[in-house]
Write a structure and sequence with these properties.
By secondary structure, this protein is of the alpha+beta class. The N and C termini lie far apart (141 Å). Helices cover 38% and strands 26% of the residues. Helix 4 runs parallel beside helix 6 (808-821).
Length: 1465
């Protein structure tokens, strides 16, 4: 929280009421215009605390029109109503009057962004542009002048485009861009850095026109609007102009590249229009207006959104208070507004954690009171000073962070610039201190309060409820510390130790290298000093003179990236110093550093990672460390303290990293966490506790076991009345009545009213001391030791430290500690000492849960720590247990949300429980809703409303639910309202109840109709019982049958001799009833066929067969036999098979024999009776279990089956059975007979036996393998796999002969014979001489064929040689069949015909005819050669052919006769 120091300007007494004010944009100097119509006007300049600059005073007999500061230089442009303009230089007061250009009131004064141009304009429409040099001096007369003929209202310079990016230019230069290199060249002009000055501007006139003036001073009209223009704004993001007229009409225009403008939005702003309107435009696109109402209006032009901010009486404003003016500070993100009651309202932009959007949220602060009527507000200078005009004078307000301090049970919190709230916790009293100086700092001890303003220090002594001033002296120290009767102040290179009256009694000097002291902190008897060069030093104050406790430590050697020290604090025994720093870039560091004085080492705790640099964080399991590390990570420390008495205990406040750079000086909506650590040499840094700061509390002041001390947020301020925000209440503190007061004692009177006493400090109990706030020191120390040892997991020392404690409150508190540390083993001991058996039992039952968090949550529930239990259940995602927890604690809304989002399996149960709860509190309407949601309304709602029959009847009619109808009908029946009950039973379709009531009322006919129409079994059964009771047997049997109560119907039929119906009923009933009926028929001796059928139907087949054989029921016997199988009695099966054999039903007999496992007999019967053995029958005869037959007998049986299949021509089945019998050769033979080539090949490949390969290959040779290359390859492969080279050689010989006979292809024939020779050579069978003979013969044939092939090939090159080779071949004795004689002669005939030697050719032809008289010449000699011979020789070749054909016919006839004779013989 901040307070605002207000400084009245030191205006001369002769000055009139101030009328205008303006801040310099950068420098802390304020220009104020004042005057009256009678005396004229004057301008004065004031410094940041209101000091008057005497030399900068200007007076004229006219009123001042406009004031404008130069944007950089301390040059003020002043204009008067008579048109005079001058430039006033600060601080010397030099004046430069502009040449007389204007003759009427000046309305415009505007500087360019760098101040090189000044634009002046007046009511007549005259506009002049003046040049100003770099020192702010005027350069001659105006350069441009325009006449617009209308009063000028607004002027705005167009922002320039950003300057060249040096980094981009550098990259371009490195990559070889010559233009970029030229810009970096030393020869050229110097490189321009940053944005350039924009010299173009826009000016508006009273008639609604906007004109553009470019850099050369040329003007043009852009656009016009209706009405006089009051404000002009430039929207940089959109490159647009925004215009607001006096009637609050907002228009926006986009600006084109060639000076054009296009309107894209026009809207009427809300509010009163008039002269008192105040409009502010912010850099982030926010338009703020104040129109004399109790609110201000905001328009976000970037988002096209609007909102309002109103004054609130809850923070100190009054009803009917109106806002006159408004201002915005971009540096602090604060909107300020001045009211007619002398208050300044401030809305601060606050951080909203967890929001995904960046929409601004504004929080109204308690008002700052300056009295009077605030008519003007303006923020200015780089110090963000606020100037306010209250109609009497000007006040300069400077924001100051609220001063607060706690020490030795005394706390002081600043309320106003001169007022403190003091709380003495030791005596439970509150005091108010009113000072005559602005309080910039405060320091308290147990009996004194010291304040300072930066120029003066004042010491007050407190005795009871009396405050006495004991000393005051001038001192420029910005920080003061107090120990006993000594005050510690700083000045360059030393610390002064003074008396309360200001007398210096000792100096603590620092060498120049160690810097100037800037930070002081006292804890017990130790003072730590921090310097501006990051050196720290600890002094011992326990003696009369302060002594150095350690040597000066230079932290820059230990901490990287150290910029400056922000805060230093030491612990109670001076062994540890904690340090907060800012980095070199000015950002706060996210670490807390600890300097160990004795070890001279520096460690740290990093809140960005949530881990210390060394030492253990906790000795618990990794899950817990991860959980706590997540809570601590991503944060930054903002304040820190040591316990005043316990040197191990340290506490600090942390905020999220994203909030550390916020412009807010305090954190209204930021997630602030308070973290407590143990710090020791042996164990490093140990996390003791971490929790979020409660709402309503401002900031941490101190840690003094058993309490944390916080300052409260100020909610309300009006006059001397203050109220803090409601937050955590301090149960141990008794506040004084708000009407009581303790008058402050001052040497001088206060200018403020006496305030009401208010407590601005709240204290919260440490987690480990809840319930032990008033314990004695021994217990307090024991609890601290217990907490410390528990943290380091030293259970022996932990229990040793508390072994003498008998208080149940202490044990309960330790059990609470176990919830935070998750030490269930320690918790059990604590519960035992507490005697809390219920909690111990609950904890033991919770051990069944797999998650440790769930077990700890149960402990937290038993100890009343409900928030902790809720967090634990959420952390382990046990939403079922969380749902139960919410229900048990009465948090039904959360329970319903949890079950709906995460625990839907228990959603209906949750609805039901909530409905029960609502019923218990009497909210029956809502209970009905949730009973319906839980789907239990059919039972629960009637039960709940049974005492309110009218409501129940309405609910029944509304729901139209069958179950509810039934319940209501039963209720009416119980009330003897039978007709109404029947109606609702009918609506519920409860036919049993309808029949029951009708029977009760004697309406038997109606009951029968209902039972027959609906077919309801229960209704039919009830009616059947009724008829049986009235001896109507047939109707009883009928309705028993409809009710499917066949047992009762059978019973009645047997008792009453209804044999015909009995058979039908028995067949519909179960086997037991069928057997009873069969026994009935058998005993009676009639209808034996029915008895057999019922025995069979009931599953008693043997009994049925015996009865069928006994009574010679052959038709029934056949039906029974159909149900016999291998599970039936073998003797029974044999008996039935004999029966079927006698009656020539052999197929059925075979099936029964197979079922009886008499396979041989079945097979024999099949053979003798020539029965076809189907695959199904063969499979049934195939024995799979070896227990039925031996392996040999089984194979024998399978072979017999296969033989039978072979005889019947079922070769595939025979193959299968031979294979199952293991006789693969026979299987192959059967398969060969089937002629199924594909299966033959497959079977051979599967069996992989040599003889099977050979058999398959032999079979394949019988096929047309000449036309199928695949069969050819398969034959060769099978002979190869069967290792039969002789057979393969024979196959190759056959292939060679085919090539010669069919295709005359001697080349392929030669290859085949070569392969045959190779195969035969590999044969190992050399026992007989046949192999040698065959090899010799093959070799001879190969030789002859080679010669013939060679002759053919040689013919193209040397025909004569080829012919000689052929002639020599014909002389070979065994030429044929190696080379057919016809082919050799054909070769010669063809040659001679081609050579024209027809005589020789004819002679060779005749030789061939002699050797082979029956030869077909056309097979060996081409048709062309034969025709040429016939033509040249004059002979007919056909005669040879006819003669040959006659001979062939004769030979065929002779062969046919021989065949016929053989057949006849």
């Amino acid at each position: 929280m901040a307070v605002y120091f207000d400084h009245r300007i030191e205006a001369p007494e002769s000055n009139d009421v101030p009328s205008k004010l303006t801040w310099h944009p950068v420098l802390p100097i304020l220009a104020v215009a004042s005057g009256s119509p009678s005396t004229g006007g004057c301008v004065d300049v004031y410094l940041q605390q209101g000091e008057y600059a005497e030399r900068c005073h200007v007076e004229r007999p006219h009123q001042i029109a406009v004031l404008r500061w130069h944007p950089i230089k301390p040059v003020l442009a002043v204009s008067w109503e008579n048109g005079e303009v001058l430039l006033l230089m600060h601080p010397f007061g030099d004046q430069t009057v502009l040449p007389s250009t204007h003759t009427v009131c000046i309305t415009l004064l505007e500087w360019s962004s760098s101040g090189s141009l000044l634009v002046t304009g007046d009511q007549s429409g005259a506009l002049a542009i003046w040049k100003v040099d770099a020192r702010g001096r005027l350069q001659g007369n105006y350069t441009v002048k325009h006449e617009y003929k209308q009063p000028l209202t607004c002027c705005i310079f167009r922002p320039s485009s950003p300057g060249d990016d040096v980094a981009k230019l550098a990259r371009a230069s490195v990559s070889g861009d010559e233009s970029a290199l030229d810009m970096f060249s030393w020869k050229g002009a110097p490189l321009k850095m940053g944005p350039q000055e924009g010299l173009a501007f826009y000016v508006s006139t009273a008639d609604g026109k906007v004109h553009s003036v470019d850099e050369q001073g040329k003007t043009s009209t852009l656009f016009s609007v209706e009405g006089s223009i009051k404000k002009l704004f430039f929207l940089e993001k959109r490159e647009a102009l925004a215009v607001i007229t006096e009637t609050l009409m907002l228009s926006q225009y986009t600006l084109g590249p060639e000076g054009s403008a296009q309107e894209f939005m026009k809207v009427k702003l809300s509010g009163k229009s008039g002269q008192n309107i105040d409009i502010v435009w912010t850099d982030n696109g926010l338009l703020i207006t104040a129109t004399g109402e109790h609110m201000i209006r905001l328009w976000d032009l970037d988002r096209d959104e609007n909102s309002i901010l109103s004054l609130d009486e809850a923070v100190g404003f009054e009803k009917g208070e109106l806002i006159n003016c408004v201002a915005y500070c971009s540096g602090k993100e604060i909107i300020t507004a001045g009211t007619n009651h002398g208050r300044i309202a401030m809305w601060r932009m606050v951080v909203q954690p967890g929001r995904g959007d960046n929409k601004a949220q504004w929080k109204l602060q308690p008002p700052t009171e300056i009295e009077g009527n605030v008519t003007q507000l303006q923020w200015g200078s780089s110090l963000n000073l606020l100037a306010a005009n209250n109609s009497n004078t000007i006040l300069i307000l400077h924001e100051h962070l609220m001063s607060a301090h706690f020490s030795q049970q005394m706390a002081a919190v600043q309320l106003t610039p001169t007022q403190l709230s003091i709380t003495q916790f030791s005596t439970d009293t509150h005091l108010a201190l009113q000072s005559d100086i602005h309080i910039k700092g405060v320091y308290v001890t147990k009996d004194s309060v010291t304040i300072w303003s930066g120029k003066q220090v004042t010491v007050y002594e407190i005795s009871g409820k009396t405050i006495r001033n004991t000393g005051s002296f001038s001192c420029d120290s910005h920080i003061v510390a107090v120990h006993g009767e000594s005050l510690y102040t700083v000045e360059p290179n030393r610390v002064q130790i003074r008396t309360p009256q200001g007398t210096v009694k000792q100096l603590l000097t620092f060498p120049k290298a160690e810097g100037n002291p800037v930070l002081l902190s006292v804890c017990q008897s130790y003072l730590v000093v921090g310097t501006d060069t990051a050196h720290i030093k600890v002094f011992d104050l326990s003696r009369r003179d302060a002594k150095a406790h350690c040597s000066t430590k230079n932290l820059t050697d230990q901490i990287a990236n150290l910029g400056a020290l922000n805060s230093v604090k030491c612990n109670a025994n001076g062994s540890q110093v904690s340090i907060l720093i800012s980095q070199v870039n000015g950002r706060p560091d996210h670490k807390v550093y600890f300097y160990d004085v004795e070890m001279d080492t520096v460690t740290h705790f990093d809140f960005f990672t949530g881990r210390p640099s060394s030492g253990i964080m906790q000795s618990e399991d990794s899950d817990r460390q991860e959980f706590e590390g997540t809570e601590l990570s991503g944060r930054c420390p903002v304040s820190h303290f040591w316990d005043e008495n316990e040197p191990r205990l340290f506490v600090c406040e942390t905020i999220p990293i994203s909030s550390e750079s916020s412009s807010s000086m305090y954190f209204d909506a930021v997630d602030v966490s308070v973290v407590t650590l143990f710090c020791t040499q042996e164990h490093g840094l140990l996390l003791q506790d971490c929790y979020p700061k409660p709402g309503g509390l401002q900031t941490l002041l101190a840690l003094d076991v058993p309490y944390y001390y916080f300052s409260c947020k100020l909610l309300y301020r009006r006059g001397g009345v203050f109220h803090p925000e409601p937050g955590e209440k301090d149960p141990g503190l008794t506040e004084l009545s708000a009407t009581s007061s303790a008058p402050p004692h001052h040497p001088q009177p206060s200018r403020r009213p006496v305030p009401h006493i208010v407590n601005m400090v709240s204290r919260l109990t440490l987690r480990d001391f809840v319930g032990l706030e008033n314990c004695e020191k021994a217990t307090r120390d024991a609890m601290l030791n217990f907490s410390f040892y528990l943290t380091i997991d030293n259970m022996d020392e932990a229990f040793k430290s508390i072994k003498l404690i008998k208080s149940k409150a202490v044990w309960e508190n330790m059990a609470r500690m176990c919830v935070k540390t998750r030490r269930l083993d320690v918790a059990r001991v604590c519960l035992g000492n507490m005697g809390n058996a219920r909690a111990a039992k609950a904890l033991k039952e919770a051990e069944a849960e797999p998650e440790v968090e769930a077990q700890v949550a149960m402990l937290a529930i038993q100890l009343g720590m409900l928030e902790d239990a809720e967090k634990l259940y959420k952390s382990c995602q046990r939403y079922d247990l969380l749902n139960n927890f919410y229900q048990a604690s009465g948090q039904w809304k959360q329970a319903l949300e949890t079950s709906d989002n995460h625990d839907r399996i228990h959603l209906r149960t949750t609805y039901y429980n909530y409905a029960k709860y609502l019923e218990s509190i009497g909210d029956k309407n809502q209970a009905i809703v949730f009973y319906e949601n839980s789907d239990t309304h059919r039972v629960e709602v009637p039960r709940m409303l049974q005492d309110d029959t009218s409501s129940l009847e309405i609910y029944v009619d509304k729901m139209k639910d069958k179950n509810i109808y039934k319940w209501w009908a039963q209720y009416l029946e119980s009330q003897s309202e039978m007709d109404s009950a029947l109606r609702f039973y009918e609506c519920a379709q409860d036919y049993l109840s309808l029949v029951r009531v009708h029977c009760y009322m004697g309406n038997i006919q109606k009951a029968s109709e209902i039972a027959n129409d609906t077919g309801d079994r229960a209704a039919s059964y009830h009616l059947a019982r009724h008829y049986e009771g009235h001896d109507d047997i047939r109707q009883a049997v009928h309705f028993y049958t409809r009710a499917q109560a066949y047992n009762n119907a059978i019973r009645l039929c047997k008792e009453n001799g209804l044999d015909d119906q009995l058979m039908n009923l028995a067949l519909l009933s179960n086997p037991e009833d069928m057997m009873e009926a069969a026994c009935y028929y058998e005993e009676k001796g009639t209808h034996m066929d029915r008895a057999v059928a019922l025995y069979h139907k009931a599953g008693y087949v043997s009994k049925a067969l015996e009865l069928a054989f006994a009574t010679q029921q052959f038709s029934a016997l056949q039906l029974i036999a159909e149900d016999l199988n291998e599970n039936s009695d073998p003797a029974l099966l044999a008996r039935c098979s004999d029966f079927f054999i006698k009656h020539s039903q052999y197929e059925k007999a075979v099936e029964l024999l197979i079922a009886a496992k008499k396979y041989h007999q079945a097979l024999e019967l099949s053979v003798t009776q020539n029965l076809t053995i189907t695959e199904e029958l063969a499979e049934r005869m195939t024995v799979t279990e070896r227990t039925d037959l031996s392996e040999e007998a089984r194979k024998n049986l399978l072979e017999r089956i296969a033989d039978c299949c072979m005889r019947q021509g079922n070769y595939h089945l025979a193959t299968k059975k031979y294979t199952q019998a293991g006789n693969k050769p026979k299987a192959m033979k059967a398969l060969l007979k089937s002629g199924d080539t594909e299966k033959i090949v497959f079977f051979a490949n599967v069996c992989r036996q040599k003889e099977l390969f050979i058999m398959a290959a032999n079979y394949l040779q019988s096929l047309d393998w000449r036309k199928s290359p695949e069969i050819l390859k398969t034959i060769i492969g099978f002979y190869t796999k069967g290792r039969a080279p002789e057979l393969l050689a024979g196959f190759y010989e056959a292939c060679a002969q085919v090539e010669i006979d069919d295709y005359q292809n001697y080349e392929k024939a030669l290859d085949a014979l070569t392969e045959a020779y190779k195969c035969l050579s590999k044969s190992k069978d050399s026992s007989s001489g046949n192999q040698e003979v065959r090899l010799t013969d093959l070799q001879h044939r190969i030789t002859l064929i080679k010669k013939f092939v060679h002759a053919r090939r040689l013919y193209a090159e040397d025909a004569g040689e080829a012919v000689q080779l052929c002639e020599s071949l014909l002389e070979e004795p065994d030429l044929d069949p190696a080379v057919r004689i016809g082919d050799a002669y054909g070769f010669l005939v063809e040659h001679h015909c081609q050579q024209g030697h027809f005589q020789v050719a004819y002679r060779k032809l005749e030789e061939l005819q002699k050797l082979l008289p029956s030869l077909n010449l056309r097979y060996y000699i081409s048709q062309a050669s034969l025709e040429a011979l016939q033509k040249e020789m004059g002979v007919t070749i056909d005669r040879y052919e006819r003669r040959n054909s006659v001979k062939e016919d004769d030979e065929v006839e002779e062969d046919l006769n021989e065949t016929l004779n053989e057949s006849h013989s």
